[in-house]
Amino acid sequence: MYQVLEPFQLNGLLLKNRIARSATYSYMHNTDGYVGGDEIGIFETLAKNQIGLILSGQLYVNPDGKISDEEPGLDDDAFLPRLRELTRAVHSHGAKTIAQINHAGARSNLHVPLSPSEIKLADGRVTMELTAEEIRRIEEDFVSAAFRAKEAGFDGVQVHAAHGYLLTEFLSPASNSRSDLYGGSLENRFRIVKEILSGIRDKCGMDFPVFVKINSNREDDAAYEAELGYFLNEFKAFGVTAVELSGYEWRAHKADERNYYLRRAAEMRRLADIPIMLVGGVRTLKDMEQVIESGIDMVSLCRPLICEPDLIPKLAAGQEKARCISCSKCFGLYTQTGKRCALHA
Hints:
Elements (H helix, E strand, L loop, with lengths): L7 E3 L2 E3 L3 E3 L15 H12 L4 E3 L3 E2 L19 H12 L4 E7 L11 E2 L12 E2 L2 H20 L5 E5 L4 H6 L14 H19 L5 E6 L5 H17 L4 E5 L15 H11 L3 E4 L5 H9 L4 E4 L1 H5 L3 H6 L13 H8 L8
Parallel strand pairs: 3-4, 3-13, 4-6, 5-6, 6-9, 7-8, 9-10, 10-11, 11-12, 12-13
Antiparallel strand pairs: 1-2
Helix pairs in contact: 1-2, 3-5, 6-7
């Protein structure tokens, strides 16, 4: 039996295996912030098909941080009944689910997006630098969203600090040139994340699972490696349940590449001694076992499960690898064709 398919306890969270569905944006939601019915069906299908932990697509903590009109929210109690439908559907099949909470920052769909420092975007727009008061309000929004996730029956939250969104922008000196308490030194750039985690712990309790998603690399990668070690040690000190490692350039990898970020992730797991989840280039059970044997705690998949929500039973029954060809057309395809994958009929 593959280790990855065996039951696993992650800092008190009992899972039926070590496989997670990494957060992904489906475009299946309403434009009023409510989770769409089709999305609930996707979660239930994944739970039926041997996914131990399902991370939601990003839920905005504040409408100013929406990446698109279809993004669902966690900034209003009115959203809780639909979210409870989702969590009940997952739990009815023995799986667990985590709410990913996010502010898109410069990537939001505002005409003038908000960011740590003024940034000129590729489309010509210029972002507006957040004031210290606005930063504190966003921190409160993250904390309130986490509490609503708990009220909705989620098994925890994941704070999204990867992929170029607001918290990533604060962490990087390339997008954060502030001269106050939220910029400059590594400790200051990390401050917003630190204060969000502290607030969630105070509001939701120490026993409520809190995950963080963060990049394993950056354009200035040599400098970032040392910074990543600092971040992970801080996460451990805050009692973070697990850290999911991704990468800033995940779209650049070829279809035949495997376990993109394994070397860095395994090294960080040894140095920081905090549970790690790894996403990127996982297509076979052998890929998954390689990740687990390296000392990493869990494996995350995203695009392969868009293509085949029943992938894990298929692999366990002898299918060699996922059908996914890593074309990334799944991001946005649904709004154009009603299909979630280019390989779907």
